[in-house]
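Students often ask what a 'structure token' actually looks like in practice. Rather than answer in the abstract, let us consider Sugar transferase involved in LPS biosynthesis (Colanic, teichoic acid), a protein of 383 residues. Its sequence is given first.
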Amino acid sequence: MEIYTTFTRPADIPASVSSNRKMLLFIGTCKPELMNKLSAFGYVGTWVENLFMAREELLKWACEVTHAPFSERVPLSAIFCDIHFPVQEIKSFLNDIQQISIFQEVPFFLMLKKQHSIKEAHHYQFRIQQINDSIYTDSNPFVIDHKIRFYQHFNKIRLQHPGVVMGVEPESLKLKIDNAFKRIFDIAGGFLLLLILSPLFLLIAIAIKLDSPGPVFYVSLRAGKGFRLFKFYKFRTMVRDADLRLSEIEKLNKYQSDQQQSPKFVKVKNDPRVTRVGRLLRKTSLDELPQLFNVIKGDMSLVGNRPLPVYEAVTLTTDLYSTRFIAPAGITGLWQIRKNKKPDMSVEERTNLDVYYARKRNFISDVRILFSTPFAMIQKEEL
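Now compare that with the structural description of the same chain:
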């Protein structure tokens, strides 16, 4: 199995970034290696040893910001905290600082080192819902910078629309039942489909190996609900070095845009990197089947918004577009069942459908979308 990742993409640092200082607070032992990376993006860091000292530093910071002239104010961009502090201490710390209005939208990240597991991070995030995400200290600074900016927008939306973003206020009984039905349906449906389709999986694997050299599965990092990254599985439909040849087909991209702030998607008609078996798999959507493993793991749902590659997801950090990330990632969704009716759908129309689904979704609408999907599987255009 081969893993392709967009984390090696070079950082595109604006020329004006050095003139706009952005402050970060590091709590614990995570300061040195990460701060050196982020300084290139205009970030300046303050480091403290523990959560008690962090409280004092933030109170002092709040006083300075309040009394400083507006032009001299340097806002706090994010807080990074080592994972070794007890859950209850972190929870108490976050409850205290979020009583201060200027810190309510500040993203909070758990810092992990290689010896820490994602399971540990999930344990913290399940118990402390104010934690936005977990980041390894050796992550690419380009990704961290965009995560900071995304969660600034995400937290703003979370405060403005507490009923839309789960985890901010206690869930209603109706919402709890709806989510429970959705998860039960995902697990039961995922296992049943995997059992029924296992012979087809074997035939597709053999066809891929006979058609071209390389792994059977394509694995990439995708951004799902809350911009959380996970390993995304598909049958390989392209040549082995397809990711390295992305620049070669840039001019063929259907979703090119001259506007720098516009969301970015990559979709190429008659992509020369696609193999013969790959064209058949894409035309019938059979390349999507391994995502059933993502559904069972909980990374995705059967129905939701499409999980995006990092280079696409980081362009959706405006207040409007980032709303799409409050919905779970899904194998199929509203965009998939409507694209055949309008194959030339623009980026904005596609993203607006994602936003609409994120705000209006419920279990009944998910069932309708799921049962409409077979009619949309035979696609009218070459992908």
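One point worth highlighting: The chain has two domains: 14-160, 173-376. Ask yourself how you might have guessed this from the sequence alone, and why that guess would often be unreliable.
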